[in-house]
Design brief:
It catalyses: ATP + H2O = ADP + phosphate + H(+); Couples ATP hydrolysis with the unwinding of duplex DNA by translocating in the 3'-5' direction. It contains 30 helices and 23 strands. It is of the alpha/beta class. Strands 3-2-6-7-1-8 form a 6-stranded parallel β-sheet. Helix 26 links the parallel strand 15 and strand 16. Helix 5 crosses helix 7 and helix 22 packs antiparallel against helix 24. The radius of gyration is 28 Å and the shape is globular. Bound molecules: adenosine-5'-triphosphate (ATP). Adenosine-5'-triphosphate binds next to helix 2.
Length: about 725
């Protein structure tokens, strides 16, 4: 394979640190393998080179390519992940006596037991209901994640708690962290997060230990630099010391872990702050997809203010990617069936969603159409979700009143969505209700340990259960709506979730389920039967995954589902978008669309949600139009939304083709298009004077904007109805 001149420049980089800005599909592995071989040829000993990849799959892929391309017998450098380095450092530091020996906790239940103990200790004097709520499985899981993230970000628990949006019932997290740490030490255990955290803390504190691990490397090459966390960054700088030259490769446009502390500008700032000056290299040519998608990706990301000034250019031999957008589940099924009719395997296709909640509609539709699928995370199978099991349980009860006598069934419905009451107490109550069919007397011991609010919640729920058999004839969607309303399910789910985003995802899941019950007109029996005998996932099926889970991967066919405002970009009335979050959502969209090789289909749903602003911003029709013209060697002038971008793209290809601004683009600007108002823009209001736009949200054609006025403070305005002038 002939490397491009940009790739060669990276391979032959001579001296000092280097930063490589690589677009998606730029052949990073090929280039970095060539770089390693070049260093070896230049006489650098293999043991003085370290290559760091972001996960095991990337590491295996890299190693395989390196072995295949190296001359036989050539000693090769180590290719590692941060975890494997941490593992080895832990072993060495333990052998040398700086760290006490600890065993890695591999099973979830072991970890959960320690977390549970930590919560007990710090809520020892709290009342029952507070403790019960803190011991809910979901809350414990959130606490576990919190502890891991504190370590990944090398923050204090209090600092990190401030940074993330945890709910009001999580105040104990900060203290629980310390108890958890003490328990781990006491039991001689460590978690995966400790593999980096412990050696790093030790090396930062012990000069002598540091001296034993530094000075062994001349070259460190690191992939996916844009998303590395604080612990990884610090470990990297420790290992490289003053001597090693660092080559960091990444794409700031694919920085999708901002909530965890990664920032697109870190590619620039953090690197220089840590290592000093670097030579910059672009890898702008993608080998993954055709011009249509390259142009669409360029359009999509151009609305971000914080981004590298770099166009992604499709290599001439790439497949001619086709793009389409549409609406509804029927379209999704048609796309996948058309793929199968072309005798293409479903493993070559992927359905991407912004959030797992959105995958529920996809799963239900595929089940119904008999199209096999597999999930990147098995536990997200729709009929394995506790909330879905519970809702199906409510439907079953409406059809079969005998279930009121089944304690296990009552327990399921009293505990999901959570009633914030401990399991044991609910089990006893369920047994009583199943046997007596009566709510216990006020003085009954069963109620003694419950707070008045818990009693009220459970009593109301029992009354609903008794009423359900009388509602058996209602359509399932209507019945579910009643259940959700009577349980006050939205509020409960928001309260139960330990992070606001999780609560909102659960609420969205409720919506999706009701929409689906309505759209599919699911007969209760069908839903119930599916829930009771869920068909397992199938290996030869289409993959369903989230955009985060698709990082670094590619498929010939990508269907991006859920292209609606509030779903993608993800926001809500309680959780509005600010400029940073909108830009991160846009980078996620960029990652999503650049996974496709031959075909990309973006679908929005038929519900109340408006189509996503990203569809308009991406100008995908222009992408198709320009790609067609390039394929046919067209000569006619092209009417496009953003002529300057197309001209720059043509200049990079060495193509001369006239372009002009399309009428629709002009109309957009006049009418206040989704891209017309953007955070950061300066405005003048006839009454309030000068200000800066902070947030743009709502209908892209008629946005609501938040403006901070110099003299009139912060105001929310309907942009098109306000006497505003853009400066
Ligand atoms: N100079 C080149 N000419 C032709 N094809 C190339 C070139 N460089 C890379 N490729 C091809 O591009 C594809 C992706 O390359 P590679 O596996 O090296 O990149 P990657 O690291 O997986 O992708 P990404 O850049 O998205 O991380 C491969 O099929 C590879 O053969």
């Amino acid at each position: 394979m002939k490397l491009t001149s940009e790739q060669w420049a990276v391979v032959r980089h001579r001296k000092g640190h280097a930063r490589v800005a690589a677009v998606a599909g730029a052949g990073k592995t090929t280039t970095l393998v060539a770089r390693v071989l070049h260093l070896l040829q230049r006489g650098v000993p293999a043991r003085r080179i370290l290559v760091l990849m972001f996960n095991r799959a990337a590491r295996e892929d890299f190693t395989a390519k390196l072995v295949a391309m190296a001359p036989p017998g050539q000693p090769l450098p180590e290719v590692r992940t941060f975890h494997s380095i941490g593992h080895r450092l832990t072993q060495s530091l333990t052998r040398w006596g700086w760290l006490s020996p600890r065993e890695l906790l591999t099973a979830d239940w072991q970890r959960e037991r320690l977390l549970r103990q930590a919560v007990y200790t710090c809520l020892e004097t709290a009342d029952n209901s507070t403790r019960d709520a803190a011991l809910e499985a979901e809350r414990l899981e959130a606490l576990g994640n919190f502890c891991d993230l504190v370590k990944a970000e090398m923050a204090t628990p209090a600092e990190f708690y401030e940074r993330l949006d945890y709910g009001p019932d999580t105040l104990h997290f900060v203290e629980a962290f310390d108890h958890y740490e003490a328990l781990l030490e006491q039991h001689g255990r460590m978690t995966y997060a400790d593999l980096l955290y412990r050696p790093l803390r030790c090396l930062e504190n012990e000069e002598e230990a540091r001296a034993r691990v530094q000075g062994f490397l001349d070259h460190v090459i690191i992939d996916e630099y844009q998303d590395i966390n604080e612990a990884q960054q610090r470990l990297l700088s420790l290992l490289t010391g003053a001597r090693a030259e660092v080559m960091a490769v990444g794409d700031a446009n694919q920085c999708i872990y901002e909530w965890r502390g990664a920032r697109p500008d870190y590619m620039l700032e953090r690197f220089e702050a840590t290592f000093g000056q670097a030579t910059d290299y672009p890898l702008s040519m993608t080998f993954r997809h055709g011009h249509a998608l390259a142009l669409t990706a360029n359009h999509a990301i151009r609305n971000n203010r914080r981004r590298p000034d770099q166009l992604c250019i499709a290599a001439p031999q790439n497949p001619q990617t086709t793009l389409d957008a549409g609406q509804g589940a029927t379209r999704l099924i048609e796309e996948l069936q058309a793929w199968q009719h072309q005798a293409r395997p479903l493993q070559q296709a992927c359905v991407l969603v912004r959030n797992w909640a959105l995958s529920v509609a996809v799963q239900l539709q595929l089940l119904r159409a008999g199209i096999p699928f597999r999930l990147a995370r098995e536990e997200r199978f729709v009929f394995r979700l506790p909330l879905v099991q519970a809702l199906a349980g409510y439907l079953r009860l409406s059809r079969d009143a005998r279930l009121l006598h089944d304690p296990a069934h009552l327990f399921l419905l009293l505990s999901q969505p959570t009633s914030f009451v401990a399991r044991e107490r609910l089990q006893t109550l369920s047994l009583h209700l199943a046997q007596t069919q009566h709510w216990p007397d006020r003085q009954d011991a069963l109620l003694a340990s419950l707070k008045p609010a818990q009693r009220r919640t459970l009593k109301r729920r029992w009354e609903l259960l008794c009423e359900l058999p009388r509602l058996a004839n209602l359509p399932p969607a209507k019945l579910l709506e009643i259940v959700v309303e009577r349980l006050d399910a939205e509020k409960v789910l928001k309260r139960a979730a330990a992070r606001r985003e999780k609560g909102e995802e659960d609420v969205r899941l409720l919506d999706v389920l009701i929409e689906q019950a309505d759209e599919l007109a699911l007969a209760p029996d069908e839903l119930i039967e599916r829930q009771q005998r869920p068909k397992g996932e199938q290996d030869d099926g289409v993959l369903i995954t989230t955009v985060h889970g698709a990082k670094g991967l590619e498929w010939p066919l990508v269907v991006l589902w859920g292209m609606n405002e509030e779903d993608f970009p993800y926001y809500s009335k309680d959780n509005p978008l600010d400029e940073e979050r909108l830009e991160e959502e846009r980078r996620l969209f960029y990652v999503a669309i650049t996974r496709a090789q031959e075909r990309l289909v973006m679908l929005h749903d038929t519900g109340d949600h408006r189509p996503s602003r990203f569809l308009a911003e991406s100008a995908w029709q222009d992408g198709n139009l320009v790609a067609q013209a390039l394929a046919n060697n067209g000569r006619d002038s092209l009417s496009v939304k953003v002529p300057a971008l197309i001209e720059r793209y043509f200049a990079a290809l060495g193509v001369e083709l006239p372009v002009e601004c399309s009428l629709s683009a002009e109309a957009d600007t006049v009418a206040g298009s989704p891209t017309y108002y953007r955070p950061g823009q300066q405005v003048r209001h006839d009454v309030f004077g000068h200000g800066e736009i902070l947030i743009v949200e709502g209908d892209p054609d008629n946005p609501v904007i938040d403006v901070r006025f110099t003299h009139a403070g912060r105001r929310r305005l309907i942009a098109r109805r306000s006497p505003l002038e853009l400066l």
